[in-house]
Structure formats: C-alpha cells, structure tokens
Amino acid sequence: MLWSITAISCQHHPCSLAAGVAKPRKAAFARKASFRSPPSSVAVQSFQVQTPHLQPTRFQEISKLCGEGRLSDAFDLLHNDVRNLGFSQEAVDAIGLLLQSCGQTKELEIGRRVHEIVSLSPQLSRHVVLTTRLVTMYSMCGCPVDARRVFDGLEERNLFQWNAIISGYTRNEMWVEAVSLFLQLISTTVLVPDNFTLPCIVKACAGLDAVELGQTVHGLAMKMGLASDIFVGNAVVAMYGKCGLLEQSLKVFETMCERNLVTWNTMICCFSENGFAQESFDLCREMMEVEGLIPDAATLVTILPICAAEEEIERGRVIHGLAVKLGLNNEVQLNNALIDMYAKCGFVFDAQILFDNALQKNVVTWNTMIGGLSTNGMVQDIFDVLRQMTMKEGMAANSITVLNVLPSCLEQTKLLSLKELHGYAIRNLFDSSGLVASALIAAYAKCGSLVSAKHIFSGLILKSVSSWNAIIGGYAQNGDPTKAIYMFFEMRSSDSTPDGYTIGSLLLAFAHLKSLRDGKVVHAFILRNGLESDSFIGISLLSLYTQCGHLVSARTLFNEMQEKDLVCWNVMISGYSQNGHPTEAALLFQQMQLEGIRPCEISVTGVLTACSQMAALKLGKAIHCFALKEELAENPFVGSSIIDMYAKCGCIDLSCHLFNRLNEKDLVCWTVMIAGHGIHGQGREAVELFERMQKEAGIKPDEFTFIGLLMACSHAGMVEEGMKYFDDMRKIHGIEPKLQHYSCLVDMLGRAGHLTDAARIIDEMPVEPDSGIWSALLGACRIHGAIGLGERCASKLLELDPDKAENYVLASNLFAGSARWDKVRRLRGRMKERDLQKEAGRSWIEMEGKVDHFTVGDISHPESDEIQRMWGSLERKISKLGYIPDTSSVLHELEEGEKVEILRRHSEKLAIAYGLLRTGKGVTLRVCKNLRMCSDCHSAAKFISVVSEREIVVRDNKRFHHFKDGLCSCGDYW
C-alpha cells in the first residue's frame, strides 16, 4: 500500500506556515462529531429536494412521511405510484429521499425493498444518484458487503460512487478494505481523489495506527493542494492525535488557514486521548474566549470524559451549567456523558437525578446509569434499573448492559446476583457473545465458583483467546494454579495462540505454587520472544520473584523497567513487606513519592504492614497522616491496616480509639481489633468485642476472626472460653476448623499445662497435623518439662520438616532444659550435617525515625561502649531490688559465670539500654524481638521499669509485654 501512494505523492513536504490564521466563518460551522466526514459530494451534484412539477402534493406527502419516520407508509405510497412517476426527476428524488432516510434510521428491510424497485428499471439502476444512495444506505445500515455488491455491479463508476464505497468501509471500521480500494482508485482509474476521499483514507490510517501511511496521504494532500481544505485538515489533525503524535497534530492545527468548530473539537479530543487533561481545558477556554466560538454538544461530550477520568467534579459541574445555558442539556449524547461523569466522580445521586429527568433515553443512557451504579457497588439498585429498563420501559438490553453489571458481582457474597445475571444473559442469548462469556467465566472465578466458570467454558463451541485467558486467569488467581497450568497446555494443543495475558496468568500460577524453576523457564521464553515490555507480563514476573522470595531478582527486574506504573511499585513494596524486609519497603515507598507516583490504598497498606513488622511507630504515624491528607484513611483496608499497625507497634489504646471512631466497621476491622487485643494478652476484651460484633453490628465471624479469638484465649489462659468458641465455630457458625485453628487450640491447652488434652486433640484431628501443631506442643512440653511427650513431638516435627533450623533448636532446648547434653550434641550434629544455622536473637528499636538493630553478643554498634556502660549501671541498680540472673535461660553446657555473661549480651537488653541512653525521662521504650523473650530478660525488664520509671513495651515473636512499675501485662503467663 505504502509504495503505491508514495509513487504518486513523490515527496512528503512539511506543511508551510501560513502568514496568519484566518478567523473561521461562523456561518459555516457544522455541529458534527470530531471524526465525521464532510457532506457527500453527491448531494452537491444532483440531489436537491425540489417541489415536483407533476405531482407536488404526492412528493410532499412522501417527504413528510420520511420526516416523521413512517418509512413503511412512505414506501407503500412510493410503490403504488412508481409506475405513474416512471423515470423522472420526481421518481429519482423520491427514491433518493427514502433511501437516505432508510440509511439514517437503519431501516434495512425497507431499504432492500426500495433496491428491488430500482433494480426493476434499467434507467433507475444505472442512475448515478440512486446507485450512490444505495451504496451509502447499505453502509449506514452496517451491510458493507451489500454495498460492495452494488458497487461491483456498476458498469461505470464516477468519483462519487468510489467515495461512497470508501466512506462505507470507513464508517464500518473496515480500515484495510478502505485503503485497498483507495489504492485501486488511484492506480487503475483516471479519477483524482478529492476533499471527500482523502479524509476517509486519513481516518482509516488512524484506525490502523498506520502513522507512516497517514503521513504519506498527508503529503499527497499537500501535493494536490487539498491540505488547506478544512475537512482534510480536520482529519489529519485527528489522525496524528490517534497515533499519539500530538506534536504533529498541534502543528497542523496551528497552521490551518481556516478552522471551524469541528477543528477545535478534534484538537481538544487529541489532547484528551493522549492524557493531557489540563491542555484540553485550556484549549476549550481559548476557543471560547479568544476565537469567540460557542461550544456545541460534541465539544462538551469531549470535555466531560476528562472530568470523569480526573474526578474533576467542580469542572464537570461548570460544563453541566454551560450545557444548560446553551440549551444543550436535553441532547441524549451529552446527557449520557453528564450521567457518566457524575457517576465516575462518585456522585451517584446527581447522576440518578439526571437519569430520571432525561426527556430521551436510549440504550446507552440505560447502560451508562447501570455502569455508574456498578462502579459504585450499588448491586440492588443495578438490578432494579435493569428490570425497569426491560420490563417497564421495554428497552432492549444488549451485551454492553450485561458487561456493565458484571463488575458489581465479583465477590463471593454476590454469587446469587451473578447467577441471576447469567440467567438473564442466557434468556436474551447474550451468553453466546465472546466478550460476555469470557466476562462471566472471570466473574464466576472471582466469586469462588470455578466449577461454574469451567461449565461455561466447556459449553463454548468456539473458544477465543479471551475465553482461554478468562479460564486460565480464573484458575491462576482464585485458588487452583495447577489447573491453570493444565488449561494452558490444553490451549497450546488447540488452535489458539497464547498472548501476553496468557503468559502473565501462567506466571501467576507458578508464583502461587512458588515454582521458581518453572517461572524462570517462562521468563526465558519471554526474553526470547521480546515480550518483556508487556506491562501485565512485567507485573506477573515481579509477583513470581517476590512470592518465591527472590527479592534481588525482583528488584533487578524492577530497576530495569523503563516505565513503572503504580501496580509495579505496589508489587515491590508488598513483596518486601511479605518477605520480612520492612526497611526496604518503607524506603521504596518514599522513593515512589519522590518520582512523582501518587500512592494508592494498596501502596499505603503495604508500607503500613512494613511499619507493623518493624514496630516503627514514628514512620507508621507519618503514613497515617499521609493517608488522612490523601483521604485514604476511610478506605476499609487502609483503616484496618492503620488499626493493625498501632496494635503491632504496642499502642493498643490508640488502636481502640481509632476503631471506636469508625463510622462503618466491616468484618476485617473487627477481626483486626480482636487479634490486636489477643497479641496484647487482653483476652477478656477480645471476647467482649467478638460478642459485640455479632449482637450490635450483626456481622458474622469468618475463619480468620476465630484465629484471632482463639489466639487471644491462648495468650490470656482462657482455656474454658477457648474450647467453647472452638466448638461453636463448627456447631453454630458452620465453619470447619482448619490447621491454624487446631494449632491455636493445641497452643492454648499446652500453655495451660493440659498436655494430655492437647495430645488427644492432635490424635483425633480429622486432618493430618502439620509441623506448626507439633511445634506448639513441643514448646509447651519444654515449658512444663514433659520430656517423654516432648520426644514424641520432636520426632514428628523433624520427620515432617527436617530442613528447618528452628525445629532442631526447639528439640535441643527441650533436652538442654533437663541437662541431657548428649541428645543436644546429637541434634546439633544433625543440623551441621544439613548445613542449617540457628537464627540469632535479634532486637530492634526505632529512634527518631531510624531503626537500630541489635544481635545477641553484638558489639558492632557505633555506641556499643556507652550501651555496655548503661547496662552495667542498670544491672547494679536492679540487683539492689532483688534481680538475680536466671541462668536456666542459657541452654548451653557452660559454667555459671559464662552463662551470666551471655545473659548480659541478650539483644533485648542491649536495645533497652540503648533506648534509655538516647531518650529523655518518661518516654516509652518500644522494642521488638524476633524470638520468644527469655525468662531472665523478662525478669530484668520488670525491674528496669521500676528504676527508670519508664514503661517498656517488648514485642516478641508471640505477643506483647508491657512492663510498668515492676509488673508485666502478661501476668508472667507467656
């Protein structure tokens, strides 16, 4: 194609700058959409509605019927009088008028019957005007094949007929066919394209995103002297804008000798489509204030989606007011855009008022209102409007209607609504649509009904790539990654070719399976095929590496990305948080803002999780302030994360305060608060909150709520209450206990010394106990000195998970507590054989926004000498109050003096001493530790709280300890 046009255009010269831009003639303004073609040349040539000489009343009657939309009556009148009219100008005018009306109203069947009348007359079937009208009518009715059949049947073709068929292809978005026919026109005929031909071809180039071809056509227009034509110029401006070449688009716009309202609308649209919202508003203002042009409906319809996308509600209201002032607010297309703008800005009530008061509603109006309700999660209202649309108003819904409703049915609680919508789609035969079927598959998967998703997929006769993607993505993202991989290989064996979304879903499946090796194979495939620039694939690769714990690979990939969108930053921040690297997560969050990326709810939730892990209260408060400033704190997930952060930073009172201030509390908020009380040992408060949740809020607990509740009972020693709630979980709430629930139950019984009952629970469990359950019982056996049962637990634990160092440490501590050093040495030998390293005790404390880390026996801290002196001073003071080092906490075969020296270098003691060294009197110290706090450090902290007159909060790997006035909040039960 390109060579044929280039041969004619010879050279594509840049447009010469005009001496000045002439003011457009206001009388010539045509209120048309930015991409509409200029009026047909046929009308200029011959078709003028005139009063017939022979039967003026008859023609006027046909014209009146067409004007009233009564085309069937008009056809009957024409059919009865066609013989009387014969081959006359009156007959041509009447038939031409009726064909034009059929095209405008898409009355295809009447148009076909008129075509039959034309075909019966040799004179009429060769008439230039009528054959051109036939081509145009079929094109406007969406039948380009019939239009081409009429065109091919012509013995001779003039430029009007070529223009009609090319325009028809463009109208029906058959871009390739339009360009192909244009090439045929200029290469096989002597006809010269005019200012009607070229805009159609330029539009086709935009549709194909063929910018080089468009530039060549632009050069041809300049060579032919048509570049100054306003219709050609408008089309070229639109083409460059569609192809993303905004600079070229603006250059053509600024050098146009004549500009009309369509020109300005087109340029505004170019700015809008390329993400330049402010420039769109500025250009609209310039159009009105400088050029003195009055906006039409097309102008406002172009501006309103920008207001919707940017959530510029105030600007949207100004546009609405302007529409009312100009008397345009009753135009259907503009009213639809206003409804859409209000809904997308969250003002559904305003959208509903506009919708209810609309004088005219088409299917787009109804779909827009339904889409707005869906976006705002108003499920019941959606179905009410849908019923009103189809039953009361008799408006036929379409596949877009169903697609607009589906986003509101993507949660497990909305499964019944989804099934209702599915039934509606089946009854109206929308389920056979590829887009609707794929969307239904994805929706069922997100609602947790993978069986229904597979049922729809299996019923599809033709499985498109989108349907394969829907089922593969559904399995990958909603709990069955193995099945996703199986479906991928089934897709490969069919005729469908995987695309970027397919590969991304496959990567997510491997990520969920933590199958790094298979993921790397897919990564290699991506690199070989040059797919790494695909954003969805890039995000999926990041998810693979972060979920598999390979953060170095993830960060390398992240750093190499040329364009990082918000999702990429969120994946990286969450990856650091979930893999125990909170400091990196916080730093990345700060870097993200420095690079101009505005964090969203997910970003804030990710960094709050990091603050919770570090107990970085100061940073957490800063993030809380950021969330308030950005109006994100009201989001349920962010609000819950803030409550959780304060609880895990030791500020349970502040968590309660924020929780009580929430206007709306969902299940997540209640669960987080119950768990917060639990880790602080406030079992009674957790139970009270659990009962309030059900009685006052009417919210039913889920499996996670019971984990928090059972953990609270365990830490508070509330065995009887814990057993009751464990039984209620199944009997009253219908929730089958999972391994985590049994682990909490065993831990609760073990802590309380009910070792026999705990062992019985394990033996009677309906599922095989995992290493976590045996670990909980082994820890209890060590505390209570139950060596026999402990040996059984140790044996099971090492059998289930022989490559985990902490399991050997637990077993070793059991035997060291009873001085069975031979078994201790044997276990440590097995660790060495497997090259396993015991995790060193680490503690950290946040000071002035910086987190300082301490390791047992570490002297690398810059202020190590001062810390040692501070601890020496503290030890002397607390010894006078009765502190005696508890050397039983040192589970090594050493002399007493050596054990005491080891106790002095425990990491939490170093962190507390550093805190006292760096803070003023009365400041609460908050220390975190990666292991369980030993009894000696626990005893020392109680005494230090007295001599320092401070509150000391220590969070170990199980719970919080609040030391104040010589007492601990745990009541020495931990």
From TrEMBL:
InterPro entries: DYW_dom, E_motif, PPR_At4g14850-like_plant, PPR_rpt, TPR-like_helical_dom_sf. Keywords: Repeat. It comes from the Eukaryota. Pfam families: DYW_deaminase, E_motif, PPR, PPR_2. PPR repeats lie at residues 158-192, 260-295, 362-392, 464-498, 565-599, 666-701, 702-737. The keyword Repeat applies. Transmembrane segments: none annotated. One of its GO terms (biological process) is RNA modification. Residues 882-974 form the DYW domain. One of its GO terms (molecular function) is zinc ion binding. Gene3D superfamilies: Tetratricopeptide repeat domain. Belongs to the PPR family. PCMP-H subfamily. This is DYW domain-containing protein. The lineage of its organism: Eukaryota, Viridiplantae, Streptophyta, Embryophyta, Tracheophyta.
